[in-house]
Amino acid sequence: MKICFVSEYFPFSSNLELKGGAEIAAYKEAFYLSKNHEITVLTSYLEGMEKKTKIGNINVIACGKMRNYSQKGSFYHRLSFMKSAQDTGKKLDFDIVIGYNFITYISAWKISQKLNIPCVLRYLDVWIGEWVKNIGISGLIGEIMERYILSRNVDLIVPISQATADKLKNYGVKSKIETIPVIVEFDKVNSVKYEDTTISCVSRLVEYKRIEDLILAMNILVRHFPDLKCKIVGTGPMKDKLLKLIEEKNLENNISLCGFVEKHEDVLKVINSSHIFCLPSEVEGFGIVVVEALGCEVPFVASNIPPIMEASGEKGGLFFNVRNFKDLYLKIKSLLEDKELYDKLKNQGKEQYNKYQGEYIAKKLENLYKIAIKNY
What we know:
Strand content: 15-25%
Strand order of the largest sheet: 3-4-2-1-5-6-7-8
Mean pLDDT: 93
Number of helices: 14
Order of helices and strands: EHEEEHEHEHHEHEEHEHEHEHEHEHHH
C-alpha cells in the first residue's frame, strides 16, 4: 500500500524528539507499517528540518512556511499548514490517506476527495461542546472544524480508545468506527532511582492538564514528607502561572519545571528514575504516558477519567477524583506509606504495558486499511 499520513508535527529522527502523544503515535505506526508499505508523512516545516527527508523507510515532506511548534493558538500558521499539506498531497499518488489530529483531518479529507481514495481519521479525542472550556474562546474555531469533519462521509474512523469511540457514537457519527489503541513500547531504560523520593509528571503546560492540582497536592505532601521532590517535564503557555504558584507556596526546593526534554529516551529516564508517576489531566484521548509509566514499572496516580482508566486497564496505579487536589494528595500519600500496595501496583504494570506492542497493533491497522481500500 502507498499510505499518506498527515500529522501536524512529526519527530525529526528515530530519537523521537518529544512533542506530544499524537506525533509519537504517528511515528510508531509509520515505522511499523513502513516495513511492508510505502509511507509518506506530510507535516509542518519546523526549524532544523529539511523540506524532504527520510527517517528509516519513512518519507517525510515538510509543508508550508517554517513555523514554531505550538499546541495552542497559532491559527494563521495552522491554516497555512493545512492548505499546504492538502495542496502537496493532491499532487502525489496514494492508496489511502490518514489524518492524525483535528488540524489534519480536513486536509486528509480534501486529499482523499481529489485522489478518489479512502480517508481515515486516527481519532484521539472528541472535544465537541468542550473546545471553549478546554482552551478558551479560541476554541470556537476548533469547534467549527471538528463539527465540519464529522459531518463528512469519512470512510473509516479509528479511535484510540473505547471512550473516544463512545463519544463519536453518542454524537451520531455515521462513519465506520473501529477502535485500535496506539503503540506504546520502548527499549529498557537504564537509570537509577533519584536519591530523594520523587514524583514525575510529563505533560504540556496547558489548562486542561491541571498541573496546578499536582502543585497544590505537593503543598500538603511536603508537610509530611519534607524531602519529597517533583519533576515536571513539558512546556506550554501555563509555565509562568505555574512558576508563580510554586513560588507562592515556597516549593522551589521541592518542585522543578524541567521544560522541554528533546529525546524521548531522556523523558523515559525521568519516569524510570522516579518513585511515582502522576497525571492530573482532565482531558486525555488515551493516556500514553501512563502506559509508559507501566512499562517502567513505576506506580502512578492519575485522574479518574475514562481514557486513562481504559488505557491502564485500571492496573498499576491509583485514581483520584479529577480536579480534587486533596484527593490527589491522599492517593499519593497512601502510595508513599503503604509498601505492600506500592509493590503490588508496581508488579501489575508490565502485564498491561505488553498489550501495546508495535507488531500486534500495526498488523491490526494494516488489515483495516487493506479492507478500506478494497471496499472503496
